[in-house]
Design a protein that fits this description.
Layout lengths: L12 E2 L1 H14 L4 H21 L4 E2 L1 H36 L21
Parallel strand pairs: 1-2
Helix pairs in contact: 1-2, 1-3, 2-3
Length: 118
């Protein structure tokens, strides 16, 4: 026989998106999912943190969510730094080789037949 006054106590569980955020952000730092992983980890981390803060009785996992957000920003920052470095390298290499864009005028070379003498 069960007692009608008994209550079931639910323990908060770690939010699934917090774990997904952490995993995706780690994959975003590796060459597995460089840009997509960082962005997805950042977005899912923000979503998880919002839900965890709004329902602390149901969810835990703010630590993994925050780690996913931080690693997502680090991954995005790394990609931006790599792109800037490649652009600077292209500008420096172009200026040291003496190649200028748009200043040379193409010349048309015409060939005339050489007469054959008998």
């Amino acid at each position: 026989m069960t007692d009608d006054n008994s209550q079931t106590i639910l323990r908060p569980s770690t939010h699934f998106l917090a774990i997904v955020s952490l995993v995706l952000s780690i994959l975003g730092l590796l060459p597995v999912l460089p840009l997509v992983g960082s962005i997805a980890g950042l977005v899912t981390g923000l979503m998880a943190r919002k839900e965890i803060r709004s329902r602390p009785d149901l969810y835990t996992g703010e630590g993994p969510a925050k780690a996913g957000i931080v690693l997502g920003w680090i991954g995005l920052g790394g990609i931006v730094l790599i792109c800037v470095a490649f652009l600077l390298l292209a500008v420096v290499s172009r200026s040291t080789t003496g190649i200028t864009v748009g200043t040379s005028i193409p010349q048309i070379i015409t060939m005339q037949p050489i007469p054959i003498q008998p």
